[in-house]
Amino acid sequence: MAIECSKRKCPNPAIIHQKYSGLHLCEAHFVEDVERKAKKEIRKQWLIERGDKIAVALSGGKDSSALLYMLKKIFQPRSDLEFFAIAVDEGIKGFRSVTLKNAEKIAKELEVELRTFSFEREFGFTLDEIAAEGFEQAPCTFCGVLRRKIIETKAKELGATKVVTAHNLDDEVQTILINYIRGDIERLGRLRGRRDEFVPRIKPLRGVPEKEVALYALVAGIAISTIHCPYAALSFRFTVKKMLNVFEKKHPGTKYSLLRGYERLSEFLPTAQQSGRELLRCERCGAPSASRICKACEIVERMRSSLTP
Ligand code: SF4
Ligand code: ZN
Known about the structure:
By secondary structure, this protein is an alpha/beta fold. It has 2 domains: 248 residues, Rossmann fold (3-Layer(aba) Sandwich); 32 residues, no CATH class. It has 12 helices and 9 strands. Helix 2 packs across helix 9.
């Protein structure tokens, strides 16, 4: 027999058992729980203000598709807000073309304008070409920097006042742990707040486990592709992800404790704004940067010299 929902007086069958909270939730209460967590995060991070133009980073994967669906649902009564989506084609054969098709489909269904930009057009090479160079760092290192660069510049150019990304609890905790392991205190601080020079970023799904985002997408009827990026397994993040999943299974609640622990600790960390470090302008592209040449332009130069015969 199906287990009943743990919410008071709810007779519906549960569709999920949240081991970390001890609750069994039916479909309606599960959806409510996920949306409540997302709203709380939005309030905590940045307020959505009157007339905001919100850029949603959409990859076409389950997280960003679910996020776009949720934002449209939550903010439906707010006619003063404008949403548009930004997709990035990194040039990963057999993978991104599939998820980008999903992105187009969901954007169309939700009537959100989608703008797609590619590494090839913006930088002159694809991620597959970077990977073929066999650099010491994993392809994800380059991919992340270049994708962030595109999202940041295009969001700004298109007049966005907020950027929303689909990072979930797992992503966030992985990032925290990676920075702990590397001893990168500066980056840990930066996770908390960005400098005023950048468009404010919101991560509404930061408090929702990856598995629950997938279930939310499923319940919402969003078609999910099970295709994975061929480079994902080469990254340090992948090792950390596997380790965290083992911990979570043995000790439910680990991911939330890590997030909460980080939040308490981060009150003592200087934010990017308070770090006192002067922010320079990249000599190549003029973007705000911590060094003379920004990370993205560094990659572009490295690739250009590598590709020149
Ligand atoms: Fe890029 Fe790595 Fe994500 Fe693949 S897994 S899309 S290489 S960041
Ligand atoms: Zn630059």
